[in-house]
User: What shape does this take?
Amino acid sequence: MVFVDLTLDGMVGKLRDPVGPYERTQTERFDVLCSASDIADDCIAEVEFAFGQEAADLFMDACYEALGNAVDWGIKGGPERFVKTTSHYGRNGVLLSIENSGGGFDYAAKIGAFRRGEPYSDQSSGKGFVLFNRDEIEVSYDMDGRRINLMIT
Assistant: This one.
């Protein structure tokens, strides 16, 4: 995993001849799981086509962990909450962005603790950084931790 200090627009700028965005926004937990996973599945299929099955499996694990986190933290509290998935494709890679309306988190502090081998989560689960810890995947956060961008090139 390569944590990069880029916004979504900055990551899109790294794609050659980007197409997209393809977006879906949902407010209900079931709708998010169905609709957002459709976009994630499309991204994973593109990764498999461009980079092979092993890369697709790595990207799938990261995408679904990020999507699960967005669903868990982004739509608590009712219909005013949302999860938005956005995908972009380029000749050299695939980018999936997952945004939620939750409270966000101090991602810089969590990344620092993870890199130092310190506990970075006060929960027993918290396997996202472990799944994102793949050299093939570039990860960035923005919007105060409410959006994660996952890109494979």
Observations:
- Strands lie at 2-3, 19-26, 83-90, 93-100, 137-142, 147-152.
